[in-house]
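Exercise: predict the structure of this protein bound to 6-O-phosphono-beta-D-glucopyranose.
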Amino acid sequence: MCGIFGYIGNKSAAPILIKGLKDLEYRGYDSVGLALLGNKINISKCTGTVESLKLDIEEFKTEKIGIAHTRWATHGKVTKDNAHPHQSQDGKIVVIHNGIIENEKRIRDLLIKEGFILKSETDSELIAHLISKAYKLNISPLECVQEVLKYLTGTWGLCVIFEDEDCIICARNGSSIALGLGNNENFISSDPYALSEYTDKIIYLEDGEVALITKNNIEVTSESGDQIEPKITIFSEEWSDSSLIEYPHHMLKEINEQPESIRRCIAGRIIIESGDCKLNGLELTDSELKDSTHITLIGCGTALNACQVGSLIITELADIVTNAYEASEFATNNMIIDNQGLYFVVTQSGETADILSAIKYIKNKGGDVRGIVNVVGSSVARECGKGVYLYSGQEKSVASTKVFSNMVTALIMLGIQIGRARNLNEEVAKILLADLIEVPDIIEKYLKRNIDFSEVIAAINKSKQVIFLGRGLSAPIAREGALKLMEITYIPCLGYSAGAMKHGPLALLEENSPVIIIAPKDEHREKLISNLLECKSRGAKIIIIHQEGDDEITQYADISISVPYTGRLLSPLMTVIPLHLISYYTGLKLGKNIDKPRNLAKSVTVG
Ligand code: BG6
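Solution:
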């Protein structure tokens, strides 16, 4: 999704904006641009990365006000004209926007009828023209923006500068805007991370709010136009360094951060003596857990795969109906919401629009929803007000790895907490928790082995498609493996439960078609072997991820990849690691942009 950054103060804005753009590039990155305000407004924009802006910041030393944008195209192709910022006809008003204006067609027709010449295909440009119309009514910049927002439907996180005004106006409706309070300077960003080097005092704009920002003051007004006292949050995420350190890519760094990340997720939440987990942020009593009749987990992309692993584990540990849903479908299919159920949205960024719509839907239907979230202070965390933080630290690579593992870890602990409030045996819970505490060390040792995946990469990097199969807990891991390889290498991949193969995907197989089978030693073994043989008999190249010493399954493998044993219910935390690494190294082999795959974004704030 787009990234927004802004600065107003006594320093030269250009270098601060460029750094801000670099920090936000992971959000969306098909084009970039910025506007600097000195005596007049100067705009630089282009398709491609921040580097391609080639802005000579020395030239713009005196400009102390500026706004900047990274684009992830929704309306209009990836062109320089469609890149942000967008200007009013007289060039005196400039807008950057993150989100989608749903009634853009009607506004576009209206403006064209009034003689406005539109330079781009974007919905965002229309906002600049509307504001310039309002500004001619001699009302203040704040009132201009408030007036125009009344005519818009859709989502926005936007910033506006006026050539004749020493201020920046920001507004939020659905797309996150964080304001950073400095000394004689103030900052604006789509996410708090990009502000952390300048300040830890953050104001999160809420939906409908508009802010007037000068270098010494931030004035926030509500949707009804009343001035409100903004809540200042201290943002402190000092425990993870988001720079690459010695790693070539954030993805490889984040894969290697998984042991530490899981340790942080379980820290202080396991009471091994009594076989309990305490996720205090849930604000749920044991009797509420005991009386709840079903659990609903909601996520997108990688988070959905984690929800599917979680739903199987919670069903088993807590003996309660647990379902996982894709968020974009949840809010639009008349789902029945009842207050006997517990609803959890699972998300890395906490800004995904489909997740925010699902929350709104559940709340409108009188349901209670909790967040399982990585980004502290994110919109989902604030909307839910209760839940579980994942403590993975910042995840920059678009393909999620360490946060997936923390999502599965948190859902295992949730299953134990609910289970212990119901009828989960203390000894069973103690054994599982003892194994869970071991997992970070086991993964750490495994990662230090620097496994050679060249045989697998050779088998898949030129293939027409790659199929991932698993049963039980390994079926969602197969889907996660497929998603990762597709995200990073653009090779068409399918992730399926192995039993479903014969009902269609088997048609895809021909001689040497790579089939990656996730095969921990568990109750699905026999059926998995017959599914494996169905593929083998059609000439597929069988690549098996199995536990060490499991000779029974390796006899069927053309290529075998062993992982340490971690306990039956914990196998997803281990079997996913080689899948992450295979995706990474295959992407590397194919020369792909590992951390910023084409067309994708770290969080999608449009529904
Ligand atoms: C996509 C990301 O945009 O959103 C995926 O590329 C991610 O990696 C998905 O899994 C869901 O995002 P989130 O932040 O809600 O977990």
